[in-house]
Design a protein that fits this description.
This protein has 318 residues and is α/β, with parallel strands linked by helices. It is built from nine helices and 13 strands. Helix 4 packs across helix 9.
């Protein structure tokens, strides 16, 4: 009995110590903040060690690290996620420390993001008649699933004041701009004025081509989504063309916009199967669902610094 009581007493003491330790760990970890760093530079020995030391020397801890060194390309890509105490490693100091590494390794790109401290990416959404991608983005933004701040919606089509899109925008005080576009006047100067205070643009089934002059003047990234039925089914109503051709696989592609139409670096692609059991309505619904999912994932990846340019027309997506 005495042995049992002694063991019981020891277990209780150990349990209490464990609870105290867990509580201390919880209090300590609750003060930590999450950060992301991406790095692209000429490859050489010691880059990973210096990146790790930069974080560890400030009391930070790496949670995940991904590295890509293309064969015979002499270039280095990395993405690191880490936690740190802002009281010990102030935000401005983080930028300064990584800037030193950037200079040391002659980096092409070195970007740090602290989601809890940095402002959300400001975007403008361009859309035409089809609403499915626009509505999905607005709902994702409302639910906090898209880490962006939608500054405005721009369209080359009018929308009635009592439509579901306009009611949503008015309720959330998001400006809607109708820009009248004709064959001879693309109104790109007007669009450019509306998007100056944004970090990137999203084309949510915007059926107008942005010129090279516009892209150069804007100078920031533009993300586009389109169905994966090209190039076989060009022109009007490609879903109907594909349905009548009896295709068995459909898809969607999110990519960066460049001067070459629909040929920019790919960020995300998704596919789904269709069969003889699908009618035209279910075929279109599957296609639109892919577009929504693909665009949302591409935007999240971009905001989480998962997308890096690679070579002339490719991307590294961690």
């Amino acid at each position: 009995m005495r042995v049992f009581k002694t063991l019981t007493s020891s277990l209780l003491q150990e349990t209490q110590k464990s609870r105290i330790f867990t509580k201390r760990c919880f209090v300590s970890s609750s003060s930590l903040t999450h950060g992301i760093h991406v790095f692209n530079c000429p490859d050489e020995v010691g880059i990973v060690a210096k990146l790790s030391d930069c974080i560890a020397s400030r009391g930070g801890n790496i949670l995940a690290a991904e590295i890509f060194v293309p064969h015979k390309k002499h270039t280095f890509y990395s993405r690191s996620e880490f936690v740190f105490d802002p009281a010990k490693w102030p935000r401005a100091q983080i930028d300064e420390d990584f800037l030193k590494l950037s200079t040391r390794f002659k980096a092409v790109r070195s970007v740090v993001r602290v989601p809890d401290l940095d402002p959300k990416f400001k975007i403008a959404v361009l859309a035409s008649k089809q609403d499915h991608c626009l509505v999905d983005m607005l709902l994702g933004w409302q639910d906090g699933k898209l880490p962006v701040d939608i500054k405005c919606v721009i369209s080359n089509h009018e929308r009635g004041p009592n439509t579901h899109v306009m009611r949503f925008l008015e309720r959330h005080q998001i400006p809607y701009h109708h820009v009248d576009i004709t064959k001879d006047d693309k109104s790109e100067d007007g669009i450019l004025d509306l998007v100056q205070d944004t970090d990137f643009l999203v084309l949510a089934r915007y059926m107008q081509v942005l010129s090279g002059n516009f892209l150069e003047a804007y100078g920031k990234d533009v993300i586009n989504i389109h169905h994966g039925l090209l190039p076989s089914f060009k022109g009007g109503n490609p879903s109907k063309q594909a349905f009548e051709a009896g295709v068995k696989l459909i898809g969607a592609t999110a990519h960066f916009v460049t001067k070459e139409l629909d040929e920019g670096p790919i960020i995300e692609q998704m596919v789904d199967t269709v069969s003889h059991r699908d009618n035209l309505l279910s075929f279109v619904q599957k296609s639109q669902n892919l577009e929504k999912q693909c665009l949302a994932k591409a935007i999240k990846s971009y905001c989480q610094l998962r997308v890096l340019p690679y070579e002339q027309n490719r991307t590294v997506v961690f």
